[in-house]
Amino acid sequence: MSNVKIAVFVGSLRAASINLQLARALEKLVPANVKFEYVSLGDIPLFNQDLENDMPAPAAKMKQQIVDAQGVLFVTPEHNRSIPAALKNAIDWGSRPWGKNVWLGKSGGVLGTSPSAAGTGLAQQHLRNILAAEGVNVLTTPEVFLQMKEGLIDGQHNITNEDTRKFLQGWVDRYVAWVQQLAK
């Protein structure tokens, strides 16, 4: 496959998000033919079924980004032992209206980071359950439960710990192969 587009969903809305830092670091690990397109979650209104047939422009734009992508990548924090509301809201919009679920059949990747030693394990499990219900083919292994420590990712989005960089490179390689395999 020549060019691969990945729609990237960062669950945090914070400008200084450590999960955005992780996504930017992962972007530096993908082959030249793979392009990340970041989906803006902050401007998508709360899902309201009354609006699904006359979809707000930000939700419609997000759905088109998913349609245009060969894969979807979720880099998410853990909020109260689950996924952030903005991420769940985006998933809801993408699945509606009935019969127009843009998630169905997409190749997905799930990971995240936290200052906690447990990383974002519970959020990832919840997200995997939701994505399975929407028909996303999520890469199952290896899983990434990354503890963010000061300096792990530098200001240019380089991963400074060689073992962590090698591990994440292996994950990225496996994810890109997964997307390419299922996009055929």
From TrEMBL:
Residues in a coiled coil are none
Please report the name of this protein according to its UniProt entry: NADPH-dependent FMN reductase
- Residue ranges of the NADPH-dependent FMN reductase-like domain? 4-147
Q: Which Pfam families match?
A: FMN_red
Which superkingdom?
Answer: Bacteria
